[in-house]
Amino acid sequence: MRIVILGSGNVAFHLAQAFSENKIGVSQIFGRNGKALKEISEHCNIPYSTDEMMDADLYIIAVKDDVTAEISRKIIKEDCLVAHTSGSLPKEILEGNYRKASFYPLQTFSKSKKLNYAEIPFFVEAENQEDQEVLKNLASQVSENVMDSDYEKRKYIHLTAVFACNFVNHLFARAKEISDGQQIPFSYFLPLIDETVQKIHEIDPKSAQTGPAVRNDERVLQLHEDLITSKEHLKIYKTVNDSIKKMYEL
Amino acid sequence: MRIVILGSGNVAFHLAQAFSENKIGVSQIFGRNGKALKEISEHCNIPYSTDEMMDADLYIIAVKDDVTAEISRKIIKEDCLVAHTSGSLPKEILEGNYRKASFYPLQTFSKSKKLNYAEIPFFVEAENQEDQEVLKNLASQVSENVMDSDYEKRKYIHLTAVFACNFVNHLFARAKEISDGQQIPFSYFLPLIDETVQKIHEIDPKSAQTGPAVRNDERVLQLHEDLITSKEHLKIYKTVNDSIKKMYEL
């Protein structure tokens, strides 16, 4: 199977690297950013081009959501499979007379970070059983967790990830504002954070909850509210504590 | 120095274990719950009692905030040092004619989990320089991160921990409600969560932010809001996204 990856961002980079590490041949990486393509090309030993797209059986579009449709129109071939990598787009966003699919790796990608691709879940959707099998087979060569998932399911996966990853990171950023304000190194909180995450590898997060809200400690809740000077911190503080109290029916 | 630990909960257990692992002698653990005390006693090879408190130079009160004052009254000796382990109490909560202190380990403790005590930060406060040194020296035998910290600072440390640990765990619990609703194993999200946390060991969480809010992706934000059926989820979703937009001035 001849594969072309379209895009030169973090997802394209990691897909190219994951395929290359698992001896899956990629014919070409194609895109607009010659400099970024060249980097991936040299790193993964895959040809690249900014103007001539190679003929392939599978095109994987790994670009930002808002340019996925535009890029998909560049594929004029009809007898081929085209998959995008977005968690929040239907496969019908792809505009062409080819067979459409989604090939969604659930991970947060930064270019420089080494990743263990084997543990990254892939969610796959295609128009027919055969294409579905092709994509699942491909994903299985990289990852141990491959799952069928239509657009509806994918939306919920993405939403879960927003809570468990994007929002969690934002809480870290807000927490760091508080500790920075007191000249306490944020690194002091990393063992606590690591332990918090380690715990949910073993027990249900609902059972792992600690802190003033879940023990209904009004004194500490009030003490914290008095301490907080930022309007944004206070809004988060109250909203999350309310949500904790609701969850445990306090 | 003769040390007595008061309490039989998770903090008492881990302090006893940390001291015992580092060959710091503890004369006794004292409390009301004989069964729990007996367990710690056998595990750490430290005598225990529910009715007769031993004479000591340092008493460490590791009990819940709301019973700390009550327990502190049980120490009638005057020429001794008494420290509580709470992040959200002043040392003046201790009621006795002894010298008062705070000895606060920053970690979330569950009884069964093995912990690397060397990386747990200890925050220490006493009435005078000599006691301060005694407690810092004690903490340093357990941990590599020991810091002076008065009540004011301790409150902020605790508040930071609530954001970075308690709130983060609650987001995991809420996220799991979403994935459970779609029969997607929550374990699929663990590599993503691990990576999110791994990232902030290396880069500032503010620079690590990803997701629809930080890229001002109104389509996905709207799509998610339409998807969410729980009032609590929606309140968190809107509050945190607003906070992200404010942080990046979007």
TrEMBL record, chains A, B:
Superkingdom, natural source: Bacteria
Domain Pyrroline-5-carboxylate reductase catalytic N-terminal: 2-75
Listed name of the protein: DUF2520 domain-containing protein
Pfam families: DUF2520, F420_oxidored
InterPro entries (alphabetical): 6-PGluconate_DH-like_C_sf (IPR008927), DUF2520 (IPR018931), NAD(P)-bd_dom_sf (IPR036291), P5C_Rdtase_cat_N (IPR028939), TM1727-like_C_sf (IPR037108)
Residue ranges of domain DUF2520 in the record: 120-242
Annotated coiled-coil segments of the chain: none
SUPFAM superfamilies, alphabetized: 6-phosphogluconate dehydrogenase C-terminal domain-like, NAD(P)-binding Rossmann-fold domains
